[in-house]
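Researcher: Please generate the 3D structure of the following complex. Treat every line as part of one assembly.
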Amino acid sequence: MGRFILRRLVAMIAVLFAISVVTFSIFNVIPNGDPALRLAGRNQSPDQISAIRRTWGFDKPLYVQYAKTMEKVFTGDLISYANQVDVDREIIQDVPRTFSLAIGAALMWMAFAVAIGLYTAVKAGQFSDRFLTVLALIGISMPVFWIGALMNYYLGFKWKIFPNGGYVPLTENPIDWAYHMILPWTALSLLFIGVYSRVLRSNVLDTINDDYVRTARAKGLSERQVLIRHVLRNSLIPIVTLWGLDFAAVIGGGAILTEKVFDLQGVGQYAADSVGQLDIPPVLAIVMFGAFFVVLLNTVVDIVYAALDPRIRLS
Amino acid sequence: MTPTPPILEVRDLAVSFATDDGVVQAVDGVSFDLRAGEVLAVVGESGCGKSVTAMTLLGLTRSSNARFSGTAQYGDTELIGASEEQLRKIRGAEIAMVFQDAMAALNPVQRVGKQIAEQILAHEDTSDADARDRCIELLERVGIPRARERVDNYPHEFSGGMRQRVMIALALSCDPRILIADEPTTALDVTIQAQILERFRELREQTNAALVLVTHDLGVVADIADRVVVMYAGRIVEQGTLDEIFYDPRHPYTWGLLGSIARMDRPRPKRLPTIAGLPPSLANRPTGCHLRPRCPHEFAECVKIPPLEARGESIPTHPSTAEHTDRCWLSTEQKVALREFAPGEIGLGTKAAAS
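Model: Done. Output below.
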């Protein structure tokens, strides 16, 4: 276990290094990527630009620039080229919003997916199964920017059932926080509920015919105990992997569309805005931030997986 | 055998499944009695309906495409028509099952102790600690060394034989009156098989439980059974005591089964005799006697279904009990004469000569 975590830690450093190099390089090869142009602002003269090049070190070789930028990432001195704001402060401001969205949505989609997946598997072939299957397919097919905008317009703006975007910190008012988050959570969860409930349904249908489920019935357990303790427990194991990876993507700022549609001003939205301005420092920092969660949750998934299935040994 | 009243009376049990290929008649008119302390072997080729018969007794074959008829009277309860709740109380507590492949039949992600305790807790109002103590005791009783530590192991941490012992410990945990073992030793090598059979024997002596042993291994049957039911294509074709079936088999199918065993005590045949042909598809069985297409002794009468009845009274040289019944139109004299020429060496003659 200790060795396993150590190895993953080393792998994490390697992954973060590789990702930072790739991200940094991309911005130096794309047209119009020159950071001096961003810093110089609108009314720029060639003299200004070359002065900026010197002071910011853009005239140095790329690897020196990379090393300097990375140093700033770790010391927290990273400054946005587009508006000279401290990147770390900006991210720290955005993180609670992204975390609120990701954690809430992940719990929501898992809970609904388990309930719907199990129900449709038990009712397989019946009307309720088919009905929910169609609903799941609709959920999978609806893009977030569309359903999110609809929800915002009707539920938020027109009928005023929910607030029309915005964010209230959890520490300030938990009820208001949840009230503001319900629409984003729902919009983000719909797709995942659709996918996960379908996967779980087929897992349950596979498991329900396993010999040990028959044994469980032969023991005299109630159908409910058989389903929860034996069928669901074993059907959930593959879902955990899926869940960990999707959660990692969302918490690392991957729910860009949802954040944008509901104007949550989270990390994803910040990343998207920064990419639009070809602003390397925030993009670099957020990419590393996201990659960190992906690697971290991968490791967590492996550990949880081994805990759920004793046949798997971490090595 | 002591004429105690049967604890389980199965009458005209029929099970069919509606499938894409038509209606599969898995079990067709099966009747037998089971008495306390008795070992009843149900033998036959794969797919003859023996496992379905066993599982149907506990309602484990119930599904939306299954149809049942007939009765299985256990005490005051008729098992075939019983509600799920009635059956739930009987399953594991009064009638327990040992399945063939213990690796698949035990939950891979649950500790074995927990799997056994779960059954105890499902039927008895007792504490977790008490259930655990009983698990350890049970594991010791079926011969698992260091049971106190092994109780917390997972199924994959046991060897095949030990896993089957866990299965048996599980089945015994509530002192059932009937133990149904579905090919309990098929996946095991012969030494382990002998040990497992020894456990069954001990058990029956200790608890006077009845054992229904579903198997296609006639060696196991010879070792442990009191009475034998021979099934073919969903029907019982012959039924009798162990000696009657092994030393005085009446049905050509039984001759075939007995003839196709490799025997140490006879000169080795050039080729091990087999029963020619394959069992019929249960979705499309021949009319009349189901063995007809494979039977060398077929004659005009065989297009009608022969009843399962005692036919032995007529010849004084081969007396048998009223319970020795078979489904074949041949006369007993013909059978006695014909089986002498059946392929393979059937354990014919008197019991004394063979033993």
